[in-house]
């Protein structure tokens, strides 16, 4: 039976909008993770079959097939191809899926799955302003006929989820405080040391607040009048990159590699694009069904904290334990560098499975357009 092994996984620290990584060109940011991965695995970079890099806002310095330019910016062999993937926030998780599928199909043996995003240089939805200048819009006639002129946005989706599942502001803020607490504890205890490749003098994630002022959090205005969602219960604008090397059994033997995990189950779903952020619920169900597992068979979960209600609703519907979810904090504390986040979460999950001696982890995240990936990874 074919296997898709993860040889290693590495990430940059996640930086803030005005932090130490803010001015690094996205191609150089991606190159940092790729270089670190090649160095850590010791594999001949010339043997890599393809480089798949997730990136959401492919505009300006993030355009021009950044998966290719990042590889070349790292000084790595020209004959190795690269491409860029956009499945919204799940872009680099989808890169991991495509890498695993290439290996499982027997068509490739060594594939890099990576992600990059510098939101300080290329803000989220920067391409929308380009459309406005062109005098056009994102939605076509068919979309408008189907969904009407109603607002479609992540903020509205998060608010609709909050209302549908009946979460109060205290619920959301309690979750956010816990995200910071866990991330701060993980940092202080050195849990991220094995997965981080320091960059530009930064050796820890910048957005974590060890001592969150709950009163100040409660005083923040909502993102819109009448909303429950505030900035404090939302993921941060961030900068980061990550990369994983996926290998076939033949490649493991040929190159003398020692895998640390394997990708066992892949799922991707479409869901209501108006609610937008509920996809992790059916994606998790699909992954478990394909694997022949129950939610209790999973040791650790990574569910992206785009907004607090996303994870709370997912846990409520799937029965996943919040005690075993995002155990080292999530995007509310650490940030969400869009196209890099899927690879960042996979890196966190692989290393935490190994650190704790756990066997099986499930990763999922909400994505634009009402989509979601779910991945089950087993530690070796």
Automatic annotation (TrEMBL):
SUPFAM superfamilies annotated for this entry? Answer: Thiolase-like (SSF53901)
Q: Name one Pfam family in it.
A: Thiolase_N
Q: Name one GO molecular function term.
A: acetyl-CoA C-acyltransferase activity
Q: Tell me its EC number(s), please.
A: 2.3.1.16
Q: Which InterPro entries match?
A: Thiolase (IPR002155), Thiolase-like (IPR016039), Thiolase_C (IPR020617), Thiolase_CS (IPR020613), Thiolase_N (IPR020616)
All copies of domain Thiolase N-terminal, residue ranges: 5-249
Keyword Metal-binding present in the record's keywords: the answer is: no
Domain called Thiolase C-terminal: residue spans: 257-378
The membrane spanning regions, by residue number, are: none
Alphabetically sorted, this entry's keywords are: Acyltransferase, Transferase
Q: Which family is annotated?
A: Belongs to the thiolase-like superfamily. Thiolase family.
The record's section on NCBIfam families has: AcCoA-C-Actrans (TIGR01930)
This chain's protein is named Acetyl-CoA C-acyltransferase
UniProt source species: Actinomycetospora endophytica
Could you read off the lineage of the organism from its UniProt record?
A: Bacteria, Bacillati, Actinomycetota, Actinomycetes, Pseudonocardiales
């Amino acid at each position: 039976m074919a296997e898709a092994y993860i040889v290693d996984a590495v990430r940059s620290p996640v930086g803030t909008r005005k932090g130490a990584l803010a001015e690094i060109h996205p191609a150089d940011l991606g190159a940092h993770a790729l270089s670190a991965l090649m160095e850590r695995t010791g594999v001949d970079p010339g043997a890599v079959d393809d480089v798949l890099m997730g990136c959401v806002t492919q505009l300006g310095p993030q355009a021009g097939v950044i998966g290719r330019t990042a590889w070349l910016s790292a000084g790595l062999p020209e004959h190795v191809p690269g491409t860029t993937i956009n499945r919204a926030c799940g872009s680099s998780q989808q890169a991991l899926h495509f890498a695993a599928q290439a290996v499982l199909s027997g068509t490739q043996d060594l594939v890099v799955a990576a992600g990059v995003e510098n939101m300080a240089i290329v803000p989220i939805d920067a391409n929308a302003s380009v459309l406005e200048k062109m005098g056009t819009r994102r939605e076509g006639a068919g979309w408008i006929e189907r969904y009407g002129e109603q607002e479609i946005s992540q903020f509205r989706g998060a608010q609709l989820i909050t209302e549908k599942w009946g979460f109060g502001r205290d619920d959301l803020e309690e979750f956010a405080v816990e995200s910071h607490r866990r991330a701060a504890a993980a940092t202080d205890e050195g849990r991220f040391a094995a997965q981080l490749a320091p960059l530009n003098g930064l050796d820890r994630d910048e957005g974590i607040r060890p001592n969150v002022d709950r009163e100040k959090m409660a005083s923040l205005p909502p993102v819109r009048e009448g909303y429950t969602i505030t900035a404090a219960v939302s993921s941060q604008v961030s900068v980061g990159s990550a990369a994983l090397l996926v290998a076939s059994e033949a490649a493991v033997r040929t190159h003398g590699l020692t895998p640390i995990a394997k990708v066992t189950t892949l799922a991707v779903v479409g869901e209501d694009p108006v609610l937008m952020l509920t996809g992790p619920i059916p994606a998790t169900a699909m992954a478990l069904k394909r694997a022949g597992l129950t939610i209790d068979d999973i040791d650790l979960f990574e569910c992206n904290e785009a907004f607090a209600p996303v994870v709370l609703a997912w846990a409520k519907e799937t029965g996943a334990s919040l005690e075993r979810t995002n155990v080292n904090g999530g995007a509310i504390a650490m940030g969400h560098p869009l196209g890099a986040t899927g690879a960042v979460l996979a890196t966190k999950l692989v290393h935490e499975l190994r650190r704790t001696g756990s066997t099986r982890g499930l990763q999922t995240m909400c994505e634009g357009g009402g989509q979601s990936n779910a991945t089950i990874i087993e530690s070796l």
